[in-house]
Design brief:
Blueprint (H helix, E strand, L loop, with lengths): L1 E4 L7 E2 H7 L8 E3 L7 H7 L4 H13 L5 H13 L10 E5 L2 E5 L9 H18 L4 E6 L3 H10 L5 E8 L5 H8 L6 E6 L3 H12 L2 H6 L2 E3 L5 H17 L7 E6 L4 H11 L7 E5 L4 H8 L1 E3 L19 H8 L4 H14 L1 E3 L2 H10 E5 L2 H15 L5 H15 L5 E6 L7 H8 L7 H8 L5 E3 L3 H13 L7
Helix pairs in contact: 3-4, 3-10, 4-5, 5-6, 5-10, 6-7, 10-11, 16-17, 16-18
Length: 472
């Protein structure tokens, strides 16, 4: 399988080269030239299989020449072997006649990012064994990506890892899960800005020819296709568990950078019959406004009780635009160039209609988020974190607007990661898992830097030159 850029000006690459490239040279995002489509019988044969077996079936066509079958199976086993419930990696909890919650917080850092990041680290390590080369891994996080990346990548020999988070704009637990991962090759950067500022710095690094060539720059963010791919698996696994392909299943996805939502779209492209899924946003509702008006317009980021979704630039939406607009790379490039210059672009009525056929979009206030946490606990006994609450509230809006059939809301993080919000809503203390207690008590190491590309670039360059740069 080969991969092309959403902006049409970068070279077509293999899976291995896409992993190392991260962002395309033309600023676009890589997608497959063609999506493998499973037949009804192929989906039926996967029903009842283990998570690892479904993961192998989904990922095998995409990695193509990079790994043989035995190697890929071993990587999958290592990626998910350390989860707290290896026999039930993604529990489905029924909370209504046709309503479920898909728990995606049983990995090392108690957040859904682990499901992709643990696999991505295996891919990095496997490719480094094949191709001896420098590797500088960079990423931006609004909270959970950073800790998942650092925990997954801390054992990769020969790699330098730099993660940027917005200073003072992540929860204390999220911060400590990052800053307590201490090793010579691990670098936490607290940027004095927003997540969008962090993401902009990372993207600017990929436009730096020297950094790309000499540093071996790659990304852990979902701009990297290898981050999207493992996320497709849990949509397929959950839908099959609920009766797909004979039964249509829809998902509600708490959404910030749109990577998780795009993974759901990929599952559909592969022939899985999913319903019109729900894009769930908090008060930073750029996506909801877009689905209402057809105009994508960035505004100032507002702090919320669901901080991992405090985003105004949803990078992966570019992939969705590319697919919905018949893969018109010129059109996508013009839209993205305009958005970068003005913070705004629009689509025609046909494109908007096609998007609405795939997704509903709702946004949820902080008050509604807290109320839903309380309602869920009182009515079902289920305690959810604020991001999951945004999804559950949006799923309820979907039902009230006429949505029928099976609906699965994604539970993105363990409630203990946002204990103050959850306890404020329920009036009850939130038990803290042992692995999280350890992080809360450990020493921290972090570098607070100005929101300036040159400052960040100089910091990374100096860290790579340091005597400890080649040790782990």
């Amino acid at each position: 399988m080969r991969y092309i850029s959403t902006r049409g000006l970068a070279p077509t690459l293999s899976f291995s080269d896409v992993v190392f490239a991260g962002l395309a040279e033309d600023g676009g995002l890589y997608v497959p030239e063609d999506y493998p489509v499973f037949s009804l019988q192929e989906w039926q044969r996967l029903r009842g299989k283990s998570y690892a077996e479904v993961a192998f079936a989904i990922m095998r066509p995409y990695v193509h020449e990079a790994f043989d079958d035995a190697t890929l199976r071993a990587m999958i086993d290592r990626a998910y072997g350390g989860f707290s419930q290896p026999e039930n990696i993604t529990p489905l909890i029924q909370v209504g006649p046709e309503d479920w919650i898909l728990e995606l917080f049983h990995g090392p850092t108690l957040a859904f990012k682990d499901y992709a990041m643990q696999m991505l680290a295996q891919i990095f390590e496997g490719l480094l064994e094949q191709k001896r080369r420098p590797l500088t891994i960079v990423g931006a996080t609004s909270g959970d990506t950073g800790s998942a990346a650092l925990h997954a990548c801390r054992g990769i020999q020969g790699a330098q890892v730099f993660v940027l988070h917005p200073h003072g704009r992540v929860s204390e637990v999220q911060r400590k899960q990052m800053t307590t991962v201490i090793a010579p090759h691990i670098h936490n950067i607290a940027l004095q800005g927003t997540f969008d500022d962090c993401q902009a710095v990372v993207k600017q690094l990929f436009q730096d020819a020297e950094a790309r060539k000499d540093w071996g720059l790659t990304a852990v963010n979902s701009i990297n296709w290898a981050r999207i791919l493992p996320q497709v698996v849990y949509y397929a696994y959950a839908a099959l568990a609920l009766g797909a392909p004979e039964r249509t299943v829809a998902f509600t996805v708490p959404t910030g950078n749109f990577g998780n939502m795009f993974a759901c779209f990929v599952a559909q492209k592969m022939g899985l019959p999913l319903g019109r899924c729900v894009v769930a946003s908090n008060r930073n509702n750029i996506l909801t406004r877009f689905f209402q008006t057809g105009v994508m317009e960035s505004r100032a980021v507002e702090a919320s009780v669901s901080p991992s979704m405090d985003i105004q630039v949803s990078s992966n939406f570019e992939r969705m635009l590319f697919e919905i607009q018949s893969r018109n790379a010129t059109m996508v490039k013009n839209q993205m160039d305009g958005f970068k210059k003005t913070g705004k672009f629009s689509v025609d009525s046909g494109t908007l209609g096609a998007l609405r056929e795939k997704c509903h979009a709702f946004d949820v206030t902080d008050t509604q988020t807290a109320d839903m946490i309380s309602v869920m606990e009182q009515n079902t006994g289920y305690v959810c974190d604020p991001h999951t609450s945004v999804g559950c509230y949006s799923a309820r809006q979907w039902r009230q607007s006429g949505g029928v059939g099976a609906m699965v809301a994604l539970a993105c993080a363990h409630p203990s990661k946002f204990a103050s919000v959850v306890q404020g809503a329920t009036g009850k203390p939130v038990p803290v898992p042992a692995r999280l207690q350890q992080a809360l008590l450990a020493p921290e190491k972090v570098n607070v830097l100005a929101n300036d590309f040159g400052v960040v670039r100089d910091f990374i360059a100096a860290a790579r030159r340091s005597p400890s740069a080649s040790t782990v």
